[in-house]
């Protein structure tokens, strides 16, 4: 039986998932997003075009693949409309290539307001949310109050909307948050009208039929495993299951229909927003990685925090996701370092451990590093494994040995073509 493959980020997001989904799409019939929403920013580059996708799956630029937005995704119609308009301007015929689950939840303007009010109330303890309304929308989903894409077709959609907004107003009043909803609503309702041009379907039936027919499916994750609501560095996480199991929930794929699990990681680490980051380099080395790697958020433009590769965290993510195949991104960014540090263990309660404990706060873990040789060569124009410097090959082998999973792709630049198959 053909099974669905899952591609996801193993760190704190922004690993380069969008680029790899675009590279792999020709091998698949269907690309399906299973969770998250416009907090995601997935960057693709080809033929000199750079494009950032937020809600739409990263297979959209290929002629044949069908792109599915699953029930686990939350959609802001306004941001979605902007994405559609940008794609239309590039000549992408989305009507034939994109379908949406009726069960996907809608982000209301008031969800965004509540996100902002809640972050403001947290003060210095704020999560560092992207302020896209993600947390409040998933809260309404689990609280059984949410509005779904399928509700748009209901004759009393407006009543349902108003009822939910009344609840939200109470929360906003509680926060003493000032807002002007009348300014936001016209664009939201206009975008809802545009959304109606797309096909709303029961994606769970569609996906399962496709599996039966032997079609090849790639489920595209957003965020990363260390931002998972259950297994991430809580409470500094997002509000969905970003791990492999999220693809089952977010698309209706049974666990025994999951095939390869492709884990994407950077050759170093980054994190945007608040929360613990054991290997963070809050110094000139971190700044050098940020500048060379252009580590600024694709969604919010915020500077990403940078640090060395964290093996205990990577092993944790590999275990929880059942990763069968790794892809290492941004190797080119480390070209200018004589030596690299790799965190192989933590000191936790006076003991040397190689797993991720309950808390990775600085008070609880101190990273232990091994130093390895760097490479000086410019990798960005290399076209095959044979061209790669031996020190980079050694770095790859060293990581493979530590984590016991093969690395099948090394990425050496943002463009589609800057991809080395190992
Ligand atoms: P995603 O959220 O996982 O899809 O990743 P983002 O798009 O948010 O961030 C990854 C950034 O790195 C984007 O700007 C990509 O264009 C860029 N990128 C991806 N792979 C590579 C690579 O191998 N080298 C370099 N230098 N940049 C890369
Ligand atoms: P992609 O798919 C990196 C982070 C935010 C914040 C926390 C919670 O591009 O990898 P939220 O808006 O979800 O309530 O924010 O999660 N975050 C991301 N960081 N990449 C992302 O997505 C992210 N989506 C959310 O910065 O710390
Ligand atoms: Mg991103």
Summarize the structure in short.
The protein has 422 residues and is an alpha/beta fold.
Describe this entry's structure for a reader.
The protein is α/β, with parallel strands linked by helices. The chain is built from twelve helices and 20 strands. Helix 2 crosses helix 7 (181-195) and helix 4 crosses helix 5. The longest helix has 18 residues, at 157-174. The structure holds guanosine-5'-diphosphate, 6-O-phosphoryl inosine monophosphate (IMO) and magnesium ion (MG). 6-O-phosphoryl inosine monophosphate is lined by residues 9, 12-14, 36, 39-42, 127-130, 132, 134-135, 222-224, 227, 238, 272-273, 298. The site of magnesium ion has 6 residues, from loops.
Descriptive terms for the model:
ten-stranded mixed beta sheet, binds magnesium ion, binds guanosine-5'-diphosphate, four-stranded mixed beta sheet, binds 6-O-phosphoryl inosine monophosphate, 422 residues, alpha/beta, 20 strands
Oligomer: single chain
Which structural class best describes the helix and strand composition? alpha/beta
Overall shape: it is globular
Low-confidence stretches: none
Strand tally: 20
Characterize the main sheet. 10 strands, mixed
Q: Identify the strand order in the major beta sheet.
A: 9-7-5-2-10-1-11-15-19-20
In this entry the ligands are:
guanosine-5'-diphosphate, 6-O-phosphoryl inosine monophosphate, magnesium ion
Helical content class: 25-40%
Q: Which percent band covers the strand fraction?
A: 15-25%
The total of helices stands at 12
Q: Look at the structure and give the mean pLDDT.
A: 97
C-alpha Rg (nearest Å):
21 Å
Distance between the termini: 27 Å
């Amino acid at each position: 039986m053909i099974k669905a493959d899952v591609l996801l980020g193993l760190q704190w997001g922004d690993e380069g998932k969008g680029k790899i989904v675009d590279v792999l799409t020709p091998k698949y019939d269907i690309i399906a997003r299973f969770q998250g929403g416009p907090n995601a920013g997935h960057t693709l580059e080809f033929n000199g075009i750079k494009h950032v996708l937020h809600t739409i799956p990263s297979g959209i630029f290929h002629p044949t693949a069908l792109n599915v937005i699953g029930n686990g995704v939350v959609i802001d119609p306004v941001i979605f409309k902007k994405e559609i308009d940008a794609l239309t301007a590039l000549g992408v015929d989305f009507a034939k290539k994109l379908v949406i689950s009726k069960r996907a939840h809608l982000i209301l303007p008031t969800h965004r307001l509540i996100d902002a009010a809640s972050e403001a109330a947290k003060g210095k303890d704020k999560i560092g949310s992207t302020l896209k309304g993600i947390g409040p929308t998933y809260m309404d989903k689990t609280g059984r109050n949410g509005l779904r894409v399928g509700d748009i077709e209901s004759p009393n959609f407006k009543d349902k909307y108003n009822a939910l907004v009344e609840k939200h107003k109470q929360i906003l009043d509680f926060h003493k948050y000032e807002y002007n909803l009348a300014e936001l609503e016209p664009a939201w309702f206009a975008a809802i009208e545009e959304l109606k041009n797309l096909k709303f379907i029961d994606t769970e039936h569609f996906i399962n039929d496709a599996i039966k027919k032997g079609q090849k499916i790639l489920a595209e994750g957003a965020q990363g495993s260390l931002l998972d609501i259950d297994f991430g560095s809580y409470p500094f996480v997002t509000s969905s299951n970003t791990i492999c199991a999220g693809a089952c929930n977010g698309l209706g794929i049974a666990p025994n229909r999951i095939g390869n699990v492709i884990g994407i990681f950077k050759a170093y680490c980054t994190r945007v927003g608040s929360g613990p980051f054991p290997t963070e380099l809050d110094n000139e080395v971190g700044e050098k990685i940020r500048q060379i790697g252009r580590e600024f958020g694709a969604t919010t433009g915020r500077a990403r925090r940078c640090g060395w590769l964290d093996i205990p965290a990577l092993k944790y993510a590999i275990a929880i996701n059942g990763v069968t195949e790794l892809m290492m991104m941004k190797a080119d960014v480390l070209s200018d370092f004589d030596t690299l540090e790799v965190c192989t263990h933590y000191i936790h309660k006076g003991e040397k451990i190689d797993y991720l404990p309950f808390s990775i706060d600085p008070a609880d873990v101190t990273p232990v590093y091994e130093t390895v040789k760097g490479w000086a060569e410019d990798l960005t124009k290399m076209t095959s494994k044979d061209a790669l410097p031996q020190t980079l090959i050694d770095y790859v082998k060293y990581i493979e040995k530590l984590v016991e999973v093969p690395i099948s792709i090394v990425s050496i630049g943002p463009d589609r073509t800057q991809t080395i198959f190992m």
